[in-house]
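Discussion board: Methods & Data

I've been asked by a reviewer to show the raw model output for two of the constructs in my manuscript, not just the figures. I'm not sure how much to include, so I'm pasting the format here to get opinions. Each protein appears as its amino acid sequence followed by a line of discrete structure tokens. Is this the kind of thing reviewers expect to see in a supplement, or should I convert it first? Here is construct A:
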Amino acid sequence: MALRCLIVDDNDHFLEVARGLLEREGIAVVGVASTKADALRLAEERRPDVTLIDIGLGEECGFDLARRLARAGYTERSSVILISAYAERDFADMIVASPAVAFLPKPDISGKAIREILGVADTESVSVGEISPDPGRVVSEEGPRSPL
């Protein structure tokens, strides 16, 4: 079974491109959302293994969505990875304080990067409880690094 992913971003073009890229790389994109309300509904309905959340959701905030998912118990059964076109240094303290397991710059999004963050091999299937992320990790083409 493929890793199941929900993507949350307010840019429709990005959602389309990211979905296509991740699906070509063996990630099952079970939904896309552009608002907190849609993301919360889809997270409950589709139960993804990982949710990619854009830090800037138009007038909404990705950090707020990550905290709401954590309060709802979502992060006990799934992982949140924050994403942004901006550099992680712009948000480092907020990323570390968030319930997200990592930050991934948008240009570095790939199935390999997501699996690396979650500690899941390319050929492994995923079951709830198998994901053992390292909180605060940031992954780019150079590999894992500290968010600070």
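Construct B, same format:
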Amino acid sequence: MLLSRMLWSAMILALVTPLAVVAPVAPTVSGVLQTLSLGAAKAAAPALIAGTSTKCPSAIRGSTPKAPGIVSPGGVTGTTSTDLQSFATRMNQIRVANCLPPIPFRNVRYDACMERRLFWMAEDPSTNPMSAWGHRGQAKRSDGAPDVGCDGNLSGGSGNTGATAAEKWWASTGHRASLYRPGTKGSMESTCILFAMTHGGVPNEPYSFTRAAARWVRC
């Protein structure tokens, strides 16, 4: 009888003991998105070429045109003037260090069409930041939203800036050939570099997680 009462009390206690509630842990986004070149394969390459005895172009200074810093319907921040200036400054530093003529700062410009595509990537509802990453005709959104905007050389990840994007694109022979074009010498007055960058993404990417795109055009 005593054993039966003890078992019955234990059963009642088990029924009224509240379940432990574990607070959900907010997912974090980190790492680096694969850097993808426009029209060339990715390959490792030295960061900078050693100095040469050839007389090289001098460094230039300047300011890029303004970028609007718009916010997408999904709350993703677009290209800022700081992004554009950071990219142009580092790109020209790399060019001059490698005996390539610098691009006039006024010719490094914000591109709304590439930005629309970066927004399309960043607003993919998947928690996997690689879900919509890639070039047109290859990348797909998890929700099936049709591809929009214009393609470009791609770079992204946590803490990625305009300057680090310029470095990543130089460090790949495919991107270097597409965006820096080392074989093109002489005046760069009719050369423009288009650039766009987004900050953050749906559903949980922080502002510091960015996506960038750039391409070489004649202007």
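Answer (T.O., handling editor elsewhere):
This is acceptable in a supplement if you add a one-line summary per construct. For B, something like: The first strand starts at residue 32 and ends at 36.
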